[in-house]
Each structure stands twice: as C-alpha cells, then as structure tokens.
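Subject: mismatched residue count in predicted assembly?

I count 296 residues in my input, but I want to confirm that the predicted structure covers every chain. Input:
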Amino acid sequence: MEQAETVGDLELSLGYVVKQVHAALRTAMDEVLRPLELTVPRYACLELLGQHPGLSNSELARHAFVTRQSMNLLLRRLQERGLPARPDQAPRGRALPTELTEDGQATLRKASIAVRAVEKQLFSPLSEEQQHRLREDLAARVDSSIAI
Amino acid sequence: MEQAETVGDLELSLGYVVKQVHAALRTAMDEVLRPLELTVPRYACLELLGQHPGLSNSELARHAFVTRQSMNLLLRRLQERGLPARPDQAPRGRALPTELTEDGQATLRKASIAVRAVEKQLFSPLSEEQQHRLREDLAARVDSSIAI
DNA sequence: CAGTATATGTCAGAATGCTGACATGGAGCA
DNA sequence: TGCTCCATGTCAGCATTCTGACATATACTG
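Triage response: the counts match. Full output below for your records.
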C-alpha cells in the first residue's frame, strides 16, 4: 500500500505547486500593474472586456473568478475612472452590457503588454514545447464548460 | 512576426489557465474544509506545522503565501481553538516556535485526507505520468529558494 | 563598544472579497 | 393568463487580507 491518503510532502503535492506558481504570478503582476493603478482583478476585468465587448457584470465575475457583488463594486470604481462604460438601462433583461472606452482600451494595451512580459519571463525556464504541453495538461482538467 | 506582445487570447495564456486551475482547486478545497471549520489558509497553516513542527509565524506566512500580519491573526484564532500552541516567551530572538496540539493533529489528519481526495479527483483526468510531468514542469519554474 | 542592518511580532486603519438578502426582468409551464 | 423558477443588479454587514508603522532581539561592522 504505497498510495498515501493524506496530502503528504507538500512539495510533492500538485495543489501546492499550483499555488506556488499562482502566488508568484500574482505578485509579479501586481508589481507591474501598480504604475497603472490596476490590480489583478481590475486588469482581468479590462482584459475580458477587451476580448469580449458587451459582457455583463455577472459574466465578468464568473470569468474573473470573483462573486458578482465584488465585480459590481470593482466595475463601478473603474467606471468612475472612465475606463469601461455601461448603459443606464438594460437593452434586454437586467444585464448591462459593458464596453471599454477609448481610455480603457489604451490602459488595457499598456497593461496587457506588461502582463505578457511577466508571463513570458516567469515561464522562461520552460522550453516552448514544455509550455505548450503544460497549457494542454492544465487545460485538460479545466471544465471547458466555463468557456465564453 | 507571429509573437504577440499583448496577452492575446486568454484561453491560450498560461497565466489564465493557472488561475483557472487554482480557482477550481480553491473552491473545491473550501467546500470540503467547511465542515471542519477550516479555510484554505487555516488548513495550510496546520499542514505546514504538521510537516515542519516549530515553524515561526513569519515562516508560516511565507510558505502559506500571506503576509505575516495575516498569519498572525489567523494563528491566534486557531490558538483560541486549541489547535496549535506557542510558548509565551521566545527561546531565542523573537520568533515563537509553533507546534500542533493533539487536537490540532487530529483535525489536520481529517483535513488532509479530505484535501488529498479533492486533489486526486481534480487531477484525475490526467494520467499518472502526466501528473508527474505537470508537477515537474511547474516546479521547474518555482524558485526553489523558497524550499523549507 | 556603539551604530547599523535585518528579522520578528504586533497594532491600527483601509481596501477587498464574501455571504445573505431583496427587487426586477425573462423563460417555461399549468 | 398566472405561477414558478432562474439570472441579474444591488444593498448591507462581516471576515479576511493588505499596507504602514513601531518596538524588540540578533547579527554584523567600524
């Protein structure tokens, strides 16, 4: 009976390693986003809007992995800065389709470049092929039902 | 020039995929830990103490990826429940070496088994070999300097 | 020895995120 | 049509975590 039932050595735990990488990524992203007065969730919101204009608050929340209440507050703060814009009335149902303003797109572009550099640097120890394989393996276990 | 400078399609971003897996893991862990009145950071604290008795508050914080202020509060709450114990005075310097009580060990055992099951289930779509490779690839880019 | 640098524990305040709750708009069904 | 169910936006309260600050203990250095 080799298979342990407890977590065992943390360094051998896939969950812990994922957490390590996630923490490293988040710290590095926070650092480069600070000059733009963005946090990771704020950046995520902009990036999602950039790729999928018209997303509602609830949809943004799901894809950014926060509750819709948190996203609501976050979105309002960004709106005060004039980065995204929402109509006053819902064109249908209650969902308010959100889009980036010119300023929002400009800010997103800067942020996206910075984040891309961080990712590239963080995963640079891995070869192109390893990175591809890593993404495949990770995606393999993500519920693809979350796809937009 | 194929190499984009911005993040590009999120689904193709390693960072986003890591975040997806991390979120899924965290949600699943929170769920199974709730009956034990534990959160992920609280569990992490106990697991670290189980594997490395005598860690100080600051060391726990670093390995659990929170600030030492947060860990301090968290640790005190756990102490009120009698799970870990710290001496009143530091045997050397200011660091207070923390250890699990009997209750703490018992709680940790239950939690660890539950978390192990979650990890196992979450990564079950991947073969044993793929999991091994995944861990290797991820660990390859974690600063091993964080090792205990 | 005195002065400096580093690490630790801790306090205080602000920001962030979550849970619970409620009202509203649409879809499905009797 | 009327009823139920679900998704959305939003308000309120609570918990958690962070940043900034300060005191203390040790190590290092001139």
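Residues 144-148 of chain A have pLDDT under 50 and may be disordered. Marking this ticket as 'not a bug'.
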